[in-house]
Automatic annotation (TrEMBL), chain A:
It comes from Kushneria indalinina DSM 14324. Residues 1-30 are annotated as: Disordered. This is Spermidine/putrescine ABC transporter ATP-binding subunit. Keywords: ATP-binding, Nucleotide-binding, Transport. It comes from the Bacteria. Residues 34-265 form the ABC transporter domain. GO terms for molecular function: ABC-type transporter activity; ATP binding; ATP hydrolysis activity. One of its GO terms (cellular component) is ATP-binding cassette (ABC) transporter complex.
UniProtKB/TrEMBL annotation, chain B:
Pfam families: BPD_transp_1. PROSITE patterns: ABC_TM1 (PS50928). This is ABC-type spermidine/putrescine transport system permease subunit II. GO terms for biological process: transmembrane transport. Residues 63-259 form the ABC transmembrane type-1 domain. It is found in: Cell membrane. GO terms for cellular component: plasma membrane. It is a multi-pass membrane protein. Its main location: membrane. Keywords: Cell membrane, Membrane, Transmembrane, Transmembrane helix, Transport.
Length: 391, 264
């Protein structure tokens, strides 16, 4: 291939169109923020998919919309793409109001769940489709395809036919087809959900590295809370068209805003609160001390925060006032890096079940039938509001 | 068990069906090469009936009319039918019950009803405006009306078999409405449009009833010529025409089959 002249060099694959500086691929991108105000979507017939959503996505952020199917996350993503119109509210990308801009005029590209590769085109023409529609000359398009193929390490895939590709390969072609257009924002609609577990975690890492390298704003949709936590800078948890919580993965996981979020993040050990006096709450497993000043209807104690010792052993932190209860081991699930115990607790007539996840440090494991002492730090007793519906 | 006997029986049945379907055609084809002027006995091989056909101006012009009518009507039917098929697809979420029935109706309606209705309609138009006197134009319109439903259904089923997200992907990748038509919808539909064209073509060549009621004195097609000629008795010349028609229809069918296979 002919040596590229210095003047051609700035045409790197990921240089922002508006940027005038000829920096290396990936370095010079100016990411765009997204602002949604009062976005509402109501379908004819009265079905409300989104209920007045306010959301600010920061420039360069890996932002995830997380929720069960039918929560409105895909509708929200389609609105960002321009494929669905909001019934009310405004949407701006990079500070520009695009509420009424049709999809083909938005600098936004999508990786679809089904990948949506055109069956009548070769892989190469699929990747170059967006550039062709924008009127880029053939020679320039081909150069760009070569660059993106190198960037995403597509190798010889570009010379195959679409029907010769596996799921994982299609996913990467779909990503290349979107990224080659150098959009202000990349949207990803459950792009990994059709893949098997091993490939999925490999592509998660690849996708994350690509995003960090480009510094591009990614909006990702998934129903898988683990995937959301691994990938995201921030997560918005949606249910019934309402944003339940926005926060970093750590915030959402450790301090769920309400019972819905806690359940959706996979938390067990939820105990309804019958009364509260100061920092003491009454629950089915007895009175618990908490450090959470929020009012709540439900107490959450994450399984990995429980401390298990033998009945006669000294407290794990003698200087501190811990919640202590006696339980019996009902079931044990050995998972290698950790061990899950199902415990039963008897408080008068009240019978409850607790789950403890103990990291496997090589110490002696408890057996089914053993009596154990459970200690819970007051700061690990978290108050949840019960403002969810259904679920 | 009886399985083998059953399979043998099926095979026999299969061959009997084929013979039942194709033996008459075979007879016509064989006797078109008969040297003597009868279909009752074989008098040696000859191409004289084909020679006579080629020298018969009425037959040549009938072949010309048939092909012209088939090509023009198929092109128009493919364009209009594709638009209907696309419309049906785009609005498939709505209740299309009555519309679908209206599209299907010409397929199940007896040709003779359509033929008579077309004739009556054209006569009225002609009486009122002087336009559409019986001839090629009325035949084209009549043929297009019975070809359209087939085209619409072929195009519609092609769209239904397509991942609907592709339409979104085209929009998302900066294609304007015209670009979507040119770079996505038409290329995706190409195999379906070709099959639809070939089917329309065969239907048109095949048609006698509707052509008969809408033809003018100067626009007789091959089937109409045959019908006229046959009243004077079945001559080997008719066998020769029939053989040519069988060959050309078979050719079109094979070509469209190959197109379909390449798509699959």
């Amino acid at each position: 291939m002919a040596e590229r002249s210095p003047t051609a060099a700035p045409d790197g694959p990921f240089q922002h169109r508006d940027s005038t500086q000829g920096a290396n691929a990936g370095a010079a991108r100016e990411a765009s923020s997204i602002n949604l105000k009062g976005i509402r979507k109501e379908y004819p017939g009265g079905v409300v998919a989104l209920e007045s959503v306010d959301l600010d996505i920061r420039a360069g952020e890996f932002f995830t919309l997380l929720g069960p199917s039918g929560c409105g996350k895909t509708t929200l993503l389609r609105m960002l793409a321009g494929l669905d119109e909001p019934s009310a509210g405004t949407l701006s990308i990079g500070g520009v109001d695009v509420t009424d801009t049709p999809p083909h005029k938005r600098s936004v590209n999508t990786v679809f769940q089904s990948y949506a590769l055109f069956p009548h085109l070769s892989v190469r023409d699929n990747i170059a489709f967006g550039l062709k529609m924008r009127g880029m000359a053939r020679s320039e398009r081909e150069q760009k395809v070569v660059e993106i193929a190198e960037f995403i390490k597509l190798g010889s895939l570009v010379d195959r036919r679409v029907d010769q590709l596996s799921g994982g390969q299609r996913q990467r072609i779909a990503l290349a087809r979107a990224l080659i257009c150098e959009p202000d924002v990349l949207l990803l609609d459950e792009p990994l959900s059709a893949l098997d577990a091993g490939l999925r975690s490999q592509l998660q890492v690849e996708l994350l590295r690509t995003q960090k390298r480009l510094g591009m704003t990614f909006v990702f949709v998934t129903h898988d809370q683990e995937e959301a936590m691994v990938m995201s800078d921030r997560i918005a948890v949606l249910s019934d068209g309402i944003i339940q919580q926005i926060g970093t993965p750590q915030e959402v996981y450790e301090r769920p805003a309400n019972l819905f979020v806690a359940r959706f993040m996979g938390h067990d050990n939820l105990f309804s609160i019958s009364a509260r006096e100061g920092m003491t709450v009454q629950t089915p497993i007895g009175a618990l001390e908490t450090e959470d000043h929020n009012e709540g209807k439900v107490a959450l104690i994450r399984p990995e925060t429980l401390e298990l010792t033998s009945p006669g052993a000294p407290s794990v932190e003698p200087g501190k006032q811990l919640n202590t209860l006696m339980c019996r081991v009902v079931e044990r699930f050995y998972r290698g890096s950790n061990v899950e115990y199902r415990l039963s607790h008897q408080s008068g007539e009240q019978h409850s079940e607790l789950i403890a996840e103990i990291s496997n440090t090589g110490e002696r494991l408890f057996r089914v039938g053993d009596e154990v002492k459970v200690e819970i730090y007051p700061e690990d007793v978290i108050m949840l509001s019960d403002d969810e519906e259904g679920a | 068990m009886q399985n083998r006997g059953f399979k043998k029986g099926l095979a026999v049945f299969w061959w009997l069906t084929l013979i039942f379907l194709y033996a008459p055609l075979l007879v016509v084809m064989v006797f078109s090469f008969n040297a003597i002027n009868t279909s009752a006995r074989w008098g040696g091989f000859s191409l004289r009936w084909y020679e006579r056909l080629l020298n018969n101006d009425v037959v040549i012009s009938a072949i010309g009319h048939t092909l012209l009518l088939a090509v023009i009507s198929s092109i128009i039917a493919v364009i209009l039918g594709a638009m209907i098929g696309y419309g049906l697809y785009r609005h498939r979420a709505r209740r299309l019950g009555l519309l679908i029935v209206l599209i299907y109706l010409p397929i199940v309606m007896p040709d003779i009803v359509f033929g008579i209705a077309d004739m009556a309609f054209f006569v009225q138009i002609n009486r009122l405006t002087g336009l559409l006197s019986p001839g090629l134009s009325t035949m084209v319109i009549a043929h297009v009306t019975f070809q359209i439903p087939f085209v619409a259904l072929i195009v519609y089923s092609r769209f239904v078999g397509l991942d609907a997200t592709l339409f979104d992907a085209a929009k998302d990748l900066y294609a304007s409405p015209w670009q979507r038509m040119l770079h996505f919808i038409l290329p995706t539909l190409k195999p379906a449009l070709l099959s639809a064209f070939f089917l329309s073509f065969t239907l048109s060549v095949d048609d006698f009833v509707i052509s008969f009621f809408t033809a003018g004195p100067e626009s007789a097609t091959l089937p109409i010529y045959i019908w006229g000629a046959i009243r004077r008795g079945i001559s080997p010349e008719i066998n020769a025409i029939a053989t040519l028609m069988i060959a050309s229809v078979a050719l079109v069918a094979v070509v469209s089959l190959l197109f379909n296979r390449r798509r699959a």
